[in-house]
Amino acid sequence: MSTDLAAGTSSANSSLGTQSVDDMSRSFALTTRLDALVAWGRRNSLWPLPYGTACCGIEFMSVMGPRYDIARFGAEVVRFSPRQADLLVVAGTITEKMAPVLVRIYEQMLEPKYVLSMGACASSGGFYRAYHVLQGCDKVIPVDVYVPGCPPTPEAVLDGIMLLQQMIRSHQPRPWKDNWKSPYEQA
Ligand code: SF4
């Protein structure tokens, strides 16, 4: 008898619980746009592929470390496979010989994808004003954010990441990306 009573009470409680959840769900509503929700997920889960060729590659490591902790921006999952990354971080000097490899890696990344050029060498060739050095990786791939410096400070790199996050959030048009064509494409 007492067991039945207990079971009855428990069932009454559970139906009351369900009712209160129903009531709560009527008392508020969360509305958003699907594209805003997707952009929120995208900007807070960037997976970088560090294309480190020189000192800036080492500098990028300090951004990953506990002091500057890029994980605070959701971008700590470094991938060395282009198919698992959506943020190409070009960190260092790019030679003419290396440029087709950079393009190949960029092409292998899945959409949506972004490029951050880290430091003077990646952005402009730096002090290597020489025939064998690419005078900026934007000569071959579309760059979304340029981070100045030689080397850039970790704060500057984080600033670049935050700028990119703002671009994703505001759905900023990227004509440099939309109109990009591989310079090595066969005619
Ligand atoms: S910008 Fe400066 S620190 Fe970065 S790769 Fe070039 S020389 Fe090295």
Description of the molecule:
The protein is an alpha/beta fold. It has a domain at 47-172: Rossmann fold. 44% of the residues lie in helices and 10% in strands. The protein is built from seven helices and four strands. The chain has a four-stranded parallel beta sheet. Strand 1, helix 3 and strand 2 (87-91) form a beta-alpha-beta unit. Helix 2 (34-43) packs antiparallel against helix 6 (154-169) and helix 3 crosses helix 6 (154-169). 28% of the residues are buried. Residues 1-8 have low confidence and may be disordered. The chain binds iron/sulfur cluster. Iron/sulfur cluster (SF4) is lined by residues 54-56, 92-93, 119-121, 126, 150-151.
Distance between the termini: 86 Å
Oligomer: single chain
Strand ordering within the main sheet: 1-2-3-4
Principal-axis shape equals elongated
Main beta sheet, described?
4 strands, parallel
Mean pLDDT, rounded to whole units?
A: 89
Spell out which ligands are present. Answer: iron/sulfur cluster
H/E element order: HHEHEHEHEHH
DSSP strand tally:
4
Percent strand? 5-15%
Instruction: Tell me the radius of gyration.
Output: 24 Å
User: What structural category characterises the helix and strand content?
Assistant: alpha/beta
Give the % helix.
40-55%
- Count the helices. How many? 7
CATH architecture of the domain at 47-172: 3-Layer(aba) Sandwich
CATH class of the domain at 47-172: Alpha Beta
Contiguous uncertain segments of 5+ residues: 1-8
- Might you state the CATH topology name of the domain at 47-172? Rossmann fold
